[in-house]
Structures are given as structure tokens and as C-alpha cells.
Design a protein that fits this description.
about 725 residues, Rossmann fold, Transcription Regulator spoIIAA, 4 domains, 22 strands, UPF0313_N, S-adenosyl-L-methionine
Length: about 725
Amino acid sequence: MTQPAQHLFSYYPYWAECFGTAPFLPMSREEMDVLGWDSCDVILVTGDAYVDHPSFGMAVLGRLLEAQGFRVGIIAQPDWNNPEEFKKLGKPNLYFGVTAGNMDSLINKYTADLKVRSDDAYTPHGEPGKRPDRAVIVYSQKCRQVYKDVPIVIGGIEASLRRIAQYDYWSNQIRRSVLIDSGADILLYGNAERALVELTHALAEGKTLDDLQDLRGTAVVRDATPAGWSEVDSTRIDWPGHIDQIPNPYEMKDTENMSCSTNGTSGDSAEGADDVMPVKIVPMPLQRKAGLDPDKTCIRLPSFEKVRNDSALYAHASRVLHQEANPYNARPLIQKHGHQEVWINPPPIPLETDEMDSVFGFAYQRVPHPSYGDAKIPAYDMIRFSVNIMRGCFGGCTFCSITEHEGRIIQNRSQESILHELEEIRDKVPGFTGTISDLGGPTANMYRLHCKSETILKSCRRLSCVFPGICKNLETSHEHTTALYRAARKIPGIKRIAIASGLRYDLAVRDPEYVRELVTHHVGGLLKIAPEHTEENVLNKMMKPGMGTYDAFKKMFDRFSKEAGKEQYLVPYFIAAHPGSENKDMMNLALWLKRQKMRVDQVQTFYPSPMSLATAMYHSERDPLHRMSYKSDKIYIPRDLNQRRLQKAFLRYHDPKNWPLLRQALKDMGRTDLIGSGPKALIPAEEEAVLRNTPRPGFAKNSKAGVRNKRPVRKPR
């Protein structure tokens, strides 16, 4: 049974609280001297510039530890080729905390087509090259090099999404858990406040990391499964043959055919039996009759070596990981890496509202560290007038990693806390003119949405609360969000509040009053939404709603815009080259765009980020959302660079640069009827294209049409 979590602020403060609150967490020995510190208790090493703002992870965790009484220093974007950079604050008394920053270092550096980006939004002046590839590994190794006896704690999104063996798009191979490769002592995944506070106080009391092997929200390396535990072999789920009929504990009862199977002939428990000897090893189909103690049962995933060599087992392991994500029923996972065992403890218990309020209510300066001078940090400029009102996402989109990192349970701030932050922005942030750029989070409209039944919540293993349809147990009223918008607009000095976070429109249509409020007061002409695709077979692999829901929302949006006397447009986002998306699917999407008179300029190609279910599809060519076996049909993967470019070209069918590529593709597909000048044609014939691109006498290219081209969505002339 899950034990209640200790309140985040119930720990007795560490003795160093007498130093009080630092204006900024120190980044140099000179700053430490001014504060009267002889040393730091914790030193945080990050790949981002230090911005003292609640949208930057190191600022949040640093201020949290400071509130617990610890002295925290920050080493931001160190030169990883110079060991002295990691010694500039001295030796930490407790540990180094290492993160790549707010983004995975490889996603930060490379595009989906593996091209090097020209800038880094989390660096002064946007300068690229200020962090290494695989920053968590590099920083950890440098910390170990300079102070061999200091514990190393890794976390942040790069570590979180690489906590088990994972497919690495950049090297096109399965890599080991980052905990193994970095040589760190412990990994904290997700939003790690609970684990971080408990770990830090325990170390300060003289405990060792060996005493903290069962800390929720962490991954550790063990020699073997602990004595007294039972080990369930995950590869025995849905064993081929007559055993398929045995009830599957991973089955989504509300979703047809949403169970997982593999048909390996042996589990990992048989490999290295001399090294791993728990009390009981139980094949999964027999576990319901085994009378296992749920508090002493772990799930053995296929080993790193097996998932590296067998893509079906990789897809299976990914599915099991995702279905062991509910903090109230998840069991520890164990995965063998050579002679070592990576042990993944269950996720942390979500923060309560008063804990969230405290975390966001620290004395943040809300500006970059003074050492950066007047340098512009693009990521800060983007969020400095925005407010995060919640965490988590229960959408479960297969291509997105938010759920894997922050969890499916929404963690909310109180309205009072949010309104107070709006006042802080008004009074403290330089350059504020009265406009709040965003009031949202991972999504715009999941604030205070929750499961109606605590009992159901604590037993549920669904991957999504809104796919294939909205769960009947989900509270979908947006009354709290609507009330928040209305209260926020009443604050003196707040002239306008935009909603820039992505809107989950399948939820919004359940509450027309919310849509009316949003459209009337918080849409500045354009509203971002993300249908992602139009074709059902692709949407199903994305775990996204069908286009009927989009149509219903658009009608509602247009009606309320007209009632408000506003000319407003939806800005739809689409993904090219998603697993399962064939050329004909992209062609149909392009035809839909043309029928809608949309010319979409902001498009993206599928990016296989670590740990997502869509990445498991990309690597394995199998769909882990459905029953799997080695005989399962493989799904189409647009993997080749030319295939990916073609699919992206369909999204931008209106761009003359794409017409030669699309012409050849349509010919190959036997769809020459879509080439020409007729009303049903998608692109012009070659001779027509020449005429279209020939400037007419007296026609200036830089006319108003050029201005319209800058809009994300526009109607063709």
C-alpha cells in the first residue's frame, strides 16, 4: 500500500538556514564570501544559463534547498574541457547535482533532420556550443574527476528520459541507462522536489546513498534484487498460445485490444541466476495465483543486452514502463546491464496545492544572474511575462515526453498563488507593459481537472485519460480555469492576458462557457491548437482525437469569435513522418489543408525523443499500444531522410520549392490528377509553375502579400 508522502516543508531546517536567503544563488567564490559562506552544501551543475525564475529548473531546486536551510551554489554552462571550472566553488559538503538543463542536450543542439541548430535559446546571446553533447554524462564525469569522493546526483529531463535502456536517435542504437554511462550515484526523475529534499536531509544527517535505495522517484544501481522480494518476469505477459487467454494485468479495460505481448522464449531471470536471487521469481501469467505482496514485488524488464538485440522486446519494455507510471500502483522495475542491475523506484507522490504554491512562491529575482550583464537570453525573454499554473498531462500523446517526465496526475497551484505571481511580474520584471504572454502549463486547459474517484485513480493503468475517448471518470469542467481568467483580468496594471500554451480542444468542447471566455478575452487573433494529423490510422498511433472533434471546436471558436466581433483564426500544428504515416496519409492531409484554404508555415517533422512510445514504434516498427508478438504486422516508418523531407513537403504544398519533389511523388503514387490547374489539383504542372513564378509587369514582390506570408496560417489569394 502506498504510504502518504511527507510534506515537503515539514523537515527540520538544516543549520545553515542562519545565513538567510541569497539575492542570487552564488556562481563564484566572491559571491560566497559576500554571503559569509566558507563552502557550499550542494553545488548544482547545469547546461543552461542561470536565470532566477520558476520556469528554470535549477532556480527552482536551488531555492527549494535554500528554503530547507542548505547553502546552494550554481555552476552554469561550465567549459567541460577545463576541470578547474568544476572546482571554482570548492568542494560541496553533500553532493554535486548535475543536469543538462531545461532541454535534452541533443534535442537542444540538433534538428529532427540531425542538422546543428544555429543558436541555443538557454545561452546568453543565443550562442551555440556552450554545452556538450550528452551533457549529463560529461558533467558527471568531470565532477568525479575533480572530487572523486563527492556523491553525484543526476536529474532533469535528459536524465529522466534516459533512466532505462533507451533508443538513441542520434547514434541510431540502444544506449544503456544514463545512470550507468555517467557513473553517477543516483538518478532523480520527473519533477524531483520530494526525492531531492528527502535525499539532501538524509545525507546531512550522516546517512549514505546505500541507505536510500528505495527512495521514490529515483533510479539506483544494485548488485541484485533485494532479499525478501518477489520478481515478476515481464516477458511472460500474453505468452503465445493458450496462455494468451489468461487475464493480463496490463490490460486497459476501457480500451479494446490495448494489451501487450511478446513471445520471447525465456525471461531475463534465467540469465545470470547466480547474481540475481530474490525469494521468488514468478512468470507473469501466474502472478495472480501466487499471492504476492505488492509492496515487495518488482517487475523484471528484459535486459539491456536483450532490448539492444531484439526490437520487439524493446517495444515491450517501453510499454511496461509506461504502464508502471501511476505513483499509486506502480511497482519497482529492474533491468540488467551486464553484471549490474538498474533499479527504478516508483514515481514520486504528486505535490499538493500548498506545496506547489510554496515552490512557486520563493523569492525569485525573476531575472538572469547579474554576471550576464545586458546579454539577451532568448528562453528567458520568451517566458518572463508568463505564469505556470500547473504541472503534468494526462493526454498521453505517444510522440510527447511530458507525461513520461511530469506524470499524468495534474498538480495545481491555488488561484491566490497565481494571482500573486501576476502581481510580482507587474511590480518586479523590467520591461513589463501590462501584457501577460501566457497563463498555462504543459497544456492550457487541464488546470484542476482530475479523476472523480480516488479509488479508480489509484488502480488505473490507462495510458491516457482522453484516448480513445474521454474517460467517464474524468472531471472535465473548466470552471476553475474560467474563474482564474476572470480574476486575473481584474488585477490593476494587467491589460491583457494571452493563452499561448497548447489547447486540448477535445476537453475544451466539453465546456462551451470556457471556450466563450477564452475566445472573447484571451485570443489575440490567433489560437494555437494541435490536431497533428487528419488521418485516423495515424491519429490512433499518436493517441490523438479524430478530426470530428476539431470540426466541433472550430465551429464553436468561429461562433464565439463572431459574437465578440473579432476576426480570429486557429493556428493548427501538424507532424510529418510520424510512425505509421504513409505518403498517401500526408497527401490526404495536404488535400484537407487545401480544402480548408490553409497554408501552414509552422510545421515539424517527428523527432524520436528518448522513452516516448512513438520512439518505440520508430525503432521497433511495432505498435506497443496494441497486442504484440513476433507475428504482428509491422507498421510503416518514414525513416529515410528523403521520405521525411517528402512528408514535410506535403504539409507545405503551397511552397514552390517543394513542387518538383511533390510532382514526382504524385506520379509515383499514380495521382497525376492532383497536378495541374483544376480546382481539385494540389500543385500546378511544371509549365504553369513557371508562369506563376514569372513576375508580372508592375508587380512588386515585397507587397502586402509578403507581409501576410509571415502569418502562420493564411488564405491563398
